[in-house]
Amino acid sequence: MSSTAEPQTQVQPTTSNSTPQAKLTTVLWFNTSEHALSSAKFYTTLFPSSRITHTQYYTSAGESQHGQTPGDVMVVAYTLFENHPIHPPLYFANLNGGATPGMHFTGAISFQIDCEDQEEIDMYWNALGEGGDESRQMCGWVEDRFGVTWQVVPRELKVMLMGGEGEVKNSEGAMRATNAMMAMKKLDLGKLRDAYEGRDGDD
């Protein structure tokens, strides 16, 4: 009995000008066309190796349902860290859904940025915090001008809060680092290290 081989689906690789074929995309709902586009431009400028891959506009199709003006931005797709040598790409799409009750950003969902040093912490914190609600800033959390919440965190802090990576845990150091973190807005890596190690900070 002969068998017929099933045809194989060919997946074409993306080029630098094509839209990535992502399996999972984070979609952010914005209330205006301007915010959907300007936030995408901001994020792709802030994070390295990032770009807008596609912009789709509203037409008269479905206008009675969506209520948007034809020609306004509908979706802005973009990729962060697209060709970064270390970080895997992250796929986003900003949707201009209009002002709809219940559709707004809250701190219940946030994006955590693991930073290598204080310089990187300062850079992301200052850029994201500019124009945002300062009353929402606490222990590394910062809300940007579009209402999106971020956590700007030194990667090293995760190890501190676990009490170290070895079998013997520094539980007291973890408690001190936790207490120090809770008292901060922007995280200070030097002070977190001092707290973890039990140093005065003036030594």
What's the SSE blueprint?
Elements (H helix, E strand, L loop, with lengths): L25 E5 L2 H14 L4 E7 L5 H4 L6 E8 L9 E7 L13 E6 L2 H12 L11 E3 L5 E6 H7 L9 H12 L6 H9 L6
Parallel strand pairs: 1-4, 5-7
Antiparallel strand pairs: 2-3, 3-4, 6-7
Strand content: 15-25%
Any low-confidence stretches, pLDDT <50, length ≥5?
Answer: 1-16
Q: What's the main sheet like?
A: 4 strands, mixed
Q: How would you describe the shape?
A: elongated
- Given helix and strand content, the structural type is alpha/beta
Separate helix tally: 6
Instruction: Write down the overall mean pLDDT.
Output: 89
Number of strands: 7
Q: Strands of the largest sheet, in order across it?
A: 1-4-3-2
The whole-angstrom Rg is 22 Å
Which sequence of SSEs, written as H and E, runs from N to C? EHEHEEEHEEHHH
Percent of residues in helices: 25-40%
Distance between the termini: 83 Å
